[in-house]
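Researcher: Let's continue the batch. This sequence belongs to GNAT family N-acetyltransferase, and it's 179 residues. Same format as the previous ones, please.
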Amino acid sequence: MKPLGDVPWPPDPIVTDRLILRETRTEDRKGLAELLSDETVQAYLGGPQHTREELEELIPQDPNTRPGIFAVEHAGEFVGRITIQRRDRAWAHHVREEGDEVEIGYEFLPITWGRGIATEATRAALGWIERTLPGEPVVLTTQVANEPSLRLARKLGFVEVERFMGFGAEQWFGHLRDE
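Model: Same format as before. Here are the structure tokens for GNAT family N-acetyltransferase:
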């Protein structure tokens, strides 16, 4: 995967009814450490690679390390992140021959689950993609076993392109259907 080198970053914050999507900040470090060390959140992403304490040491003071990562804020607190990046051409799974599609991903703290926050945030990010990179195909990959992620992808309008084995599990690869 590679960052969005063709997009000015950071963008202006995106404000929805309940959320703010913005660049990550120093005050997000604690929430990022919680997100990246939570076994439930990371269950379909290979599991936590570090403890929360280790991550609090490893995450840079300025966690805004690359373009394409939106921190999601709800009621003044970091609750998750959305990543937007170019899908590297080396991957075997693409929707266009030359690859390099825009790929979106999302991770949210369990306190947000079932409240529509992931849907609201991801819709806002998809709107930003459409305004910033009009006409670009948008793709998403999630484990087939990650039923909540798969439901969200379908709810957002992603349709299955194919399934494949990767990272020791069956993966679902989809693209955002044209309206």
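Researcher: Any comment?
Model: The CA atoms of residues 23 and 70 lie 5 Å apart.
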